[in-house]
Specification:
The chain contains 9 helices and 11 strands. The chain is an alpha+beta fold.
Length: 446
């Protein structure tokens, strides 16, 4: 009779644990990173020496709590997330370049300037069209300067974002090292162990959004992580983590370095936001270089046309623009409408022949066309990058859905398990009650 009591007691304890696990699943159905848990129930077999007396075993025991997870599907989520993060980051900086080139309407300002010089040709001695040309020239100088400043601001913001990303990566690496330490102490099959494994996978997913990672696990689930692929530097190993830093030179070349212990290694991300920042830095630097080249060519060309003619006072034409550092920082140095050199030397104030130099500059220098082409090319690159990001977003969503089909909580299934374990718990309680009643009846007979 005591065996019956013992069997019932083991059932109560086991199904209480199973009910707790199921309740935990239901409570965390909407928790990000939570993996469904299952209580493993094993029969308590009777020892061979007593199997003739107790052929059916001694009840049930909890074998542990297992965590529903698929390492391969989790890896696919990390890879897809890393690719998406790179494209999204790259698109963000292309969008900043697009705003810098489009918002200041530099191409329109150049068109207006060249058009204004034709108005002078109709009446070279009139001051009104000359004043209009100087206003148009000031607009061009302002647009060049504003565009250059916007690109410089984008580069500074990129630096700040990249620094923040490396700081976040370092924090995640340190957190993963602590999780590794916790896994060393946690009992396998315990709820605490499952929680640590959830934290591990969530940290790895967050790390992969910053840089592509190569991950391996030991027998108790501790992760070793390398950044930038299998051949990259170690970011986390055991309870130790690396420190990643960021730097960018004037040409837009980005460098990430990883310091692990006493060793410093170059980190070359091919995925994640860090790779997107590297792409963006190169694009911004290229845009700045092209803008500076066009600003220099435009200012030199306009000033050369001025130098070839004479103004209304019969004096040699003086420069309209002064090139700054960087060259996109243009300033006006001619403020007097009389100073526009419309005439050829010795031809008189009614002559407009020197103005043809502006038409030649417009055609051969093609600054206006170069700026328009530059804006259009960046816009096309942005549209293409967004298209890639959209496709990669769908790929990641599918990868997440595939992973969650294994590890996610299904409320309907958990509700069924809840009822099943509740009934088993109640039945086990009834077994104990029947055993007590039977035992009491036997005592009363005696």
């Amino acid at each position: 009779m005591s065996d019956l009591l013992s069997i019932g007691a083991t059932g109560v304890r086991a199904y209480q644990t199973a009910l707790t696990t199921t309740s935990e699943n239901i409570a965390n159905a909407g928790t990000v990173g939570y993996s469904r848990r299952t209580t493993v129930l094993n029969e308590v077999a009777a020892p061979s020496s007593v199997t003739s007396r107790i052929p059916n075993g001694l009840g049930v025991v909890v074998g542990g709590v297992t965590r529903a997870a698929d390492l391969y599907r989790s890896a696919e989520v990390r890879t897809a997330g890393s690719d998406l993060a790179r494209s999204e980051a790259g698109a963000a900086w292309l969008d900043r370049i697009d705003g810098a080139l489009s918002d200041n309407k530099l191409g329109d300002r150049l068109t207006a300037f060249f058009a204004s010089t034709k108005a002078i040709a109709a009446d070279p001695s009139a001051l009104a069209p000359r004043a209009t040309t100087l206003e148009a020239a000031q607009s061009v100088a302002t647009a060049f300067s504003a565009t250059g400043a916007a690109l410089s601001a984008a580069a500074s913001d990129l630096d700040a974002s990249a620094d923040a990303a490396t700081t976040q990566l370092n924090g995640l690496s340190a957190a993963l090292a602590k999780v590794n330490s916790g896994l060393s102490r946690a009992q396998a099959g315990s709820a605490a162990n499952a929680t640590l494994l959830d934290q591990r996978d969530q940290i790895l997913e967050s790390m992969s959004a910053i840089t592509d990672v190569s991950v391996s696990f030991d027998g108790i689930g501790r992760a070793t992580v390398k950044g930038g692929g299998e051949g990259g530097p170690v970011l986390v190993q055991g309870v130790d983590s690396a420190t990643v830093s960021y730097a960018r030179n004037g040409e837009g070349a980005v460098a990430f370095t990883s310091r692990f212990g006493n060793a410093t290694t170059t980190l070359s991300p091919s995925g994640g936001a860090l790779a997107g920042y590297a792409d963006g830095a190169q694009k911004i630097a290229a845009a700045q270089s092209q803008l500076n080249d066009q600003a220099q060519a435009f200012a030199d060309g306009v000033n050369a046309v001025q130098a070839a003619g004479v103004d209304l006072n019969g004096d040699p034409g003086q420069p309209i623009f002064q090139v700054g550092d960087p060259p996109s920082n243009l300033t006006m140095v001619l403020n007097d409408p009389h100073g526009i050199a419309a005439a050829a030397p010795g031809a008189g104030t009614r002559d407009n022949s020197n103005l043809a130099g502006f038409d030649t500059l417009r055609a051969t220098g093609n600054v206006e066309g170069a700026i328009i082409d530059m804006t259009a090319a960046n816009g096309a690159a942005l549209a293409a990058k967004r298209g890639v990001a959209e496709a990669q977003g769908a790929i990641r969503d599918n990868a997440v859905a595939a992973r969650d089909s294994v590890s996610g909580v299904n409320i309907d299934e958990e509700a069924v398990d809840l009822m099943r374990f509740q009934q088993a718990y109640q039945a086990s309680s009834r077994v104990i009650q029947v055993a007590r009643e039977t035992f009491q009846s036997i005592l009363e007979i005696r």
